[in-house]
Design a protein that fits this description.
By secondary structure, the protein is an all-alpha fold. About 75% of the residues lie in helices and about 0% in strands. The longest helix has about 35 residues. It is globular. About 55% of the residues are buried.
Length: about 325
């Protein structure tokens, strides 16, 4: 439990750190940025994976067709789709409202996971999800909106966030966090290239933009993905999902450190609330792990199709994945 919690916390702190570079990429084409981001991350992860296989002397496991389909859905919806939806939503509505809607992911995951596993939901984890969601809302504000499309896109991003946790879970026991992260990044690249061709938006990054993309690739993608998927495989998607509420807290902390923001009492109360919610969820009675046991089979049967970005710097949520 401790190891998974530390990994999940580290991953979400890394994701929150993306707020430090998002201003540089404000006007950079979304699909171009994502293509470069995932390509750089894929190269790094492939090198690390090769070194790991050479060190252990083990042969790479055979990936089945359904597993490739699941990885593709993870990349298409949980990664590329999520980030495109976030960017589009923040262009049409208050970024704080987008963050609040996407911040409901812990509650949704806590409800969906036991339903797929045909078990009663954990009331303690559901309560924890509600508490951390409230804490994240306190930290970034509730926002407001007059755009129905913006709200719809935010809900789409929420769906991508949930997919990012649940779709990967059944793959982790057989492929491992590093291999799942690597394959997902590799598949994400051609998906982004399709988006580039469709939109016709191309750009070559300047020096500052390249440095920002390197940070997103190495820290927010390669590093955070491996840590996050390791956490999901260790403590399950229900508990791991609670830690996504640390993203706006991390973003606020980073802006304070670099001098571009100043924490308020709302941020402080939000952070305390999130920590309390995590304590509630992590002290829940240990139950059979859906992520790598029978729930994997249930998810595969119930959702066989199921095998984060250049977003606005104004959002405290920063770059989800």
């Amino acid at each position: 439990m401790l190891r998974g919690s530390v990994f999940a916390t580290s991953a979400m702190l890394m994701v929150g750190s993306s707020v430090a570079v998002m201003g540089v990429l404000r006007h950079f084409p979304v699909y171009t940025g994502q293509a470069l981001r995932f390509a750089l991350a894929a190269v790094l992860l492939l090198v690390v994976l090769k070194l790991q296989d050479r060190r252990t002397g083990e042969r790479a496991p055979t990936v089945t067709g359904p597993q490739w389909l699941r990885v593709t859905v993870l990349a298409a919806i949980g990664m590329v789709g999520f980030n495109v939806a976030i960017v589009a939503a923040e262009q049409r509505t208050d970024p704080a409202l987008v963050g609040v809607i996407v911040g409901c992911a812990p509650v949704v995951i806590a409800l969906i996971t036991p339903v797929l596993a045909k078990t009663p939901p954990s009331r303690r984890i559901l309560l924890a999800g509600l508490v951390v969601t409230a804490g994240a809302a306190l930290a970034q504000g509730l926002g407001s909106s007059t755009s129905v499309l913006g709200v719809v896109l935010s809900v789409g991003a929420l769906f991508g966030e949930v997919v990012f946790a649940l779709v990967a879970a059944p793959l982790l026991s057989s492929l491992g966090a590093l291999r799942v992260s690597t394959y997902a990044c590799v598949i994400a690249v051609p998906l982004c290239l399709i988006g580039m061709v469709t939109t016709g938006e191309y750009a070559v990054p300047d020096g500052d933009q390249l440095l920002a993309l390197l940070w997103l690739s190495v820290v927010v993608t390669a590093g955070a993905y491996v840590l996050w998927f390791t956490a999901v495989g260790s403590i399950g998607p229900e508990r791991a999902g609670l830690f996504t509420s640390l993203i706006p807290i991390s973003a606020v902390g980073v802006t304070a450190l670099i001098g571009t923001g100043e924490p308020t009492w709302g941020h402080a109360f939000g952070a305390i609330t999130v920590v309390l919610g995590l304590l509630v969820g992590l002290t829940a009675r240990k139950e059979p792990d859906f992520s790598v046991a029978r729930g994997a089979g249930e998810l595969a049967r119930h959702a066989p199709w199921a095998g984060h970005s250049v977003s606005s710097p104004d959002s405290a949520r920063a770059d989800g994945h």
